[in-house]
Amino acid sequence: MSERIKLETPFQDSRLKELNAGDMVYISGTIFSARDAAHKKMCELAADNQPMPFDFNGTAVYYAGPCPAKPGEPIGSVGPTTSGRMDLYSPTLIQKGLKVMIGKGLRSKEVTESIVEHGGVYFAAIGGAAALMAKCVKSAKVITFEELGTEAIRELVVEELPVIVAIDSKGDNMYQKAIEQNRE
User: Fold this and answer.
1) Which residues have a Cβ under 8 Å from the Cβ of 101 and sit 6 or more positions away?
2) Model confidence over 58-84: pLDDT tens digits?
3) How far apart are CA 56 and CA 96, in angstroms?
4) Which residues contact 39 (CB under 8 A, 6 or more apart)?
5) In whole angstroms, how far apart are CA 153 and each of 18, 74, 101, 142?
6) Considering only CA atoms, which of 161, 53, 162 is closest in space to residue 98?
7) What is the rounded distance in angstroms from the CA atom of residue 164 to the CA atom of residue 110?
C-alpha cells in the first residue's frame, strides 16, 4: 500500500487517473448509496431514456444498505455489500457517466473493461466495519425509491471514508493480483 491519499467530491478525472490499485484513499464529500434494487430501477430509467435520479458526475455510488439510525445519529451501520450483485447493471450506469463505485469483492470482466474504457475507479470498502463506516457519515437523506427501504438511494455526506483502490483506471486489479499470487 502507498501513501495516505485524501480525495474530495466532486472527483476530478485527472485525479482519478493518478490512483493506483492498492492505494489507501479517504473520501470526503457527497456520495450516494445504492444496491441491487436501485440499480435495476436506474437501468430501467436508462432504457426509457429517462434522467438518472442524481448526477453521476464527480460522485460515487456506495454499494450499501444502511441500518436504521440510532437517535441523534445520521445513519446506522453502513458497511459495503458484495459488488458482484451490481455487475449486471454497472456497465449501463458507467456508460451513463458513473465513474466511481465503492463496494467489496471481485468485479466481472465486463465491469472492469467498462471502468477502463471510461476512466473510472472501483474502491473496496472494509467489510465487517459497518459501524466504523457509519462514523464517517455526517448526514444522510433518502433522495429516491423510498419504497425500497434500506435499498433506497441515499445522499450521504462523508468525511474521510476509508477505501482502497481495488481496480484503477488502467485496469490494474488488486483482487486479480491476489488470486494470481495464490495460484503460484
Assistant:
1) 60, 61, 63, 83, 86, 90, 120, 121, 122, 123
2) 999 999 989 999 999 999 999 999 999
3) 8
4) 86, 88, 89, 90, 93
5) 29, 15, 14, 6
6) 53
7) 21
The answer to pTM > 0.85 is yes
pLDDT digits (tens, 9 = 90+) for 111-143: 999 999 999 999 999 877 888 899 999 999 999
Mean predicted confidence (pLDDT) in 12-41: 97
Report the range of poorest mean pLDDT among 2-11, 55-64, 149-158. 2-11
* Domain 4-183 classification at class level: alpha beta
| Catalytic residue annotation | 39
Count of alpha carbons within 13 angstroms of residue 17, beta-carbon side: 6
By the 8 A CB rule, do 88 and 110 touch?
Answer: no
Contact 155, 145 (CB under 8 A): no
The residues spanned by each domain of the chain are: 4-183
- Across the chain, the runs of DSSP E, i.e. the strands, are 4-8, 24-33, 60-62, 100-103, 121-125, 137-144, 153-167
Looking at the chain, the whole-number percentage of residues with pLDDT higher than 90 is 86
